[in-house]
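Annotated sample (chain length 190).
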Amino acid sequence: MSKHTQPILLFGLILPGVVVLLLLGGVFAGRGKLLVKKETKEELFESFKEASEKLSTIEEELSIEGRRDQMEYWDAQLKKEFVQSLSQNLNEITEQFTEDQLIRTELSRPTSRSPLASSTENPHSRFKLSFEGGFGPMQSALAELEMRMPQLVLESLDIQPVVDSGGSRSKLRFDATYLAWHDISDVEAP
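Output written by the structure step:
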């Protein structure tokens, strides 16, 4: 080899080859990062489209006559003092029925722990309602109560026939235990 061959190989082939390989490596690394960003943005866009579709569905549901008013009513009910609101709603509901159809016999707090809420740290309270009357009025009363107070969850319902002094079974006794979830924003932070 001549004395010029070695520099020609070094500067003409090897060095440009190394530079080209480094540039190709940088292009592939950059392309990989761009593909990852593209996939992330596509996932975000898909979740945005899904959330947007859900929002439009909710808005569509609320636009049905009376739904928005119902949501405003429920929000107002959630802001009221619970025991007062419960008593007021129960009185209004039971006024619709005669004493032969349905009568409230008890409103108390159960002493046992809640099987539903005891495993959570969410603020809640429990109460037990007892009624005597017919099945139809009872169904209507409980449905109306749950519609007026959306924070209620029926925890248990026990139905037994009531035997009067004559031995006839003309009424039923309903024992309903409800769980009432409280607004988390009402709980003070420690």
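Annotation: Helices lie at 5-63, 67-79, 82-94, 135-148.
Annotation: The chain has a mean pLDDT of 81.
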